């Protein structure tokens, strides 16, 4: 008997699971998914992401039942609703986290009649909110002050306390939870802009470091005091987590391709932090992007992000064309 914590499934094995609980999408719903403006193709949606949304619905139902049982034990029957189900999406810069997160948001928001799961506690139209952790990056001026501009995306470049507090507040059922907003255009936190989450049924939290374990505070500097205190990490609030995985050479290529595309589009805006790369040759611009990959994003992947892969509930392993080739599902 295998004691490996993960069950490995080929794409074919995984997509065959869908047939047992078919999810019929109407033409309009398919059209809405296309309307996400993403590159993702519909075979991929059907074979990989529809079964995933069905598995997530099973987890949502089971989490609800467990909470109801706990409340009954505590003599609080009838108060089991209202706790959002929280999903974390982790992986490297440019591996496709935001594409997966937006797609899941769309699939999980579909009317319940499509979910194939009976009796789950969701309303007919579940409200699914998405937050990205870039809003919790320290502002550029603060990164500069701390000498962290070349560590952007590393765990220490975030206000981890604020992120954890944000998710804890949503999970606790606060009616309104407000967080900061990051702009890729200005490469900084946007002053005077916030995002507010209003008691969603499901919250998706997407970012490079969402599977980082909790920090130990105080203990390292004061071992004589008998060790420190462990803070909660954002991952402590997850009911389910996904790690989007691919070969490093493929991710680097996707990063450079995205940079090339942005150079022809968003960077054209004179307000863009990267506007300067539209006025030099493509070769020069790509040399800059390659350097950013090699000195920031790849070391962050190796040192901080990839080591958290084994904490995810499900790992999606992508091939060179973004198609999911195999999956590892946590079973122990
Ligand atoms: N399933 C997919 N099929 C094709 N291209 C994809 C897919 N997912 C992501 N991409 C492309 O890969 C790049 C990185 O994806 P993105 O979601 O922006 O990554 P991240 O949020 O991890 O930085 C983008 O150019 C995106 O269009
Ligand atoms: C904003 C990011 C840190 C990603 O943040 P996330 O939402 O994953 O927390 C990253 O996309 C980024 O800008 N990294 C800095 C290096 C670069 O320009 O690629």
From TrEMBL:
Reactions mediated catalytically: (R)-pantothenate + ATP = (R)-4'-phosphopantothenate + ADP + H(+)
Keyword ATP-binding found: yes
Pfam families recorded: PRK
Binding residues annotated for ATP, in chain numbering: 91-98
Pathway given in the UniProt record: Cofactor biosynthesis; coenzyme A biosynthesis; CoA from (R)-pantothenate: step 1/5
Highest rank taxon of the organism: Bacteria
Keyword list, A-Z: ATP-binding, Coenzyme A biosynthesis, Cytoplasm, Kinase, Nucleotide-binding, Transferase
Main localization category: cytoplasm
GO molecular function: pantothenate kinase activity
Domain Phosphoribulokinase/uridine kinase positions: 86-246
SUPFAM superfamilies on file: P-loop containing nucleoside triphosphate hydrolases
InterPro entries (UniProt xref): P-loop_NTPase, PanK, PRK/URK
E.C. numbers: 2.7.1.33
Keyword Cytoplasm: yes
Enzyme class per UniProt: transferase
Compartment(s): Cytoplasm
UniProt cross-references to Gene3D superfamilies, sorted A to Z: P-loop containing nucleotide triphosphate hydrolases
Sequence similarity: Belongs to the prokaryotic pantothenate kinase family.
Protein known as: Pantothenate kinase
Species whose genome carries this gene: Streptomyces iconiensis
Lineage, highest ranks first: Bacteria, Bacillati, Actinomycetota, Actinomycetes, Kitasatosporales
Gene giving rise to this polypeptide: coaA
